[in-house]
Design goal:
The chain is an alpha+beta fold. The chain contains two helices and seven strands. The radius of gyration is 52 Å and the shape is rod-shaped.
Length: about 240
């Protein structure tokens, strides 16, 4: 029997048998003898790892390079930050308004106020006239109205035409000014029979002051019938 087998052995038969054995047992041998972590990217054939080879939840965040995913990698509606807008945040505080007018003059910083801020000054002009045909003694009146009301009332001072300025009223009829807490009335000139400087005793001091404005009174000194007038400027500074 052994002789019959030896009679059929050839070099080609032996080589073929060894190759067949290696093919059938080589994979098992390699799997059984590979050291841990010995298979790297160089040992893997391109496209060798397919979806079916990956286990469920095998790819986690730690396996994904930061910034490597694209919009096309996400399903519709799943892209972080996409979808319906979130609720609106709280409103920011109003920004500061400018303090220059359209002609470059310095004014109040906006928004417009209802009460004149402390230390701010308002200025204006006043005037009044009357024709007297009856007895003397009826006062001539002129009204003043503030653009903004005052937080509290102020004291009034009357500066006669040509008279020097005072500590509380340091201005003139052409450049009215007032210290804080004062209304300064500057007589501007004469007209008719009135000297535009003699205040009437109708008011406490010839001027009735209010938070919103004032009324100036002057005596009728001409002989009837006559025409009288008065005019001037004013300034008030909020206390």
């Amino acid at each position: 029997m052994a002789g019959r087998i030896r009679s059929h052995l050839t070099y080609a038969n032996v080589v073929a048998s060894i190759a067949l054995f290696a093919a059938l047992g080589g994979g098992a041998y390699a799997a059984a003898t590979l050291a841990p972590n010995s298979v790297g990217s160089k040992q893997l054939k391109k496209k060798a790892v397919t979806n079916s080879k990956l286990g469920a939840n095998a790819v986690t965040s730690s396996k994904v390079k930061n910034g490597s995913l694209l919009k096309a990698d996400f399903a519709a509606g799943q892209l972080p930050g996409a979808g319906a807008a979130g609720p609106a945040g709280p409103a920011g505080s109003p920004g500061a308004k400018g303090d220059k007018g359209d002609k470059g003059d310095t004014g109040l910083a906006g928004p417009l106020v209802d009460t004149l801020p402390s230390g701010k000054t308002l200025r204006g002009a006043y005037g009044g006239a009357a024709w007297y045909s009856t007895a003397a003694g009826i006062p001539l009146e002129a009204s003043i109205s503030y653009a903004f009301r005052l937080a509290s009332n102020v004291a009034a001072e009357y500066v006669n035409a040509g008279a020097p300025s005072t500590a509380h009223c340091p201005g003139t009829s052409t450049a009215p000014a007032a210290a804080a807490g004062f209304l300064c009335i500057y007589a501007g000139g004469n007209g008719g029979g009135n000297n535009n400087g003699t205040l009437s005793s109708y008011g406490t001091d010839g001027v009735d002051e209010y938070r919103f404005g004032a009324i100036v009174y002057a005596n009728n000194t001409c002989a009837e019938p006559c025409y009288e007038e008065m005019w001037g400027t004013w300034a008030v500074t909020a206390p």
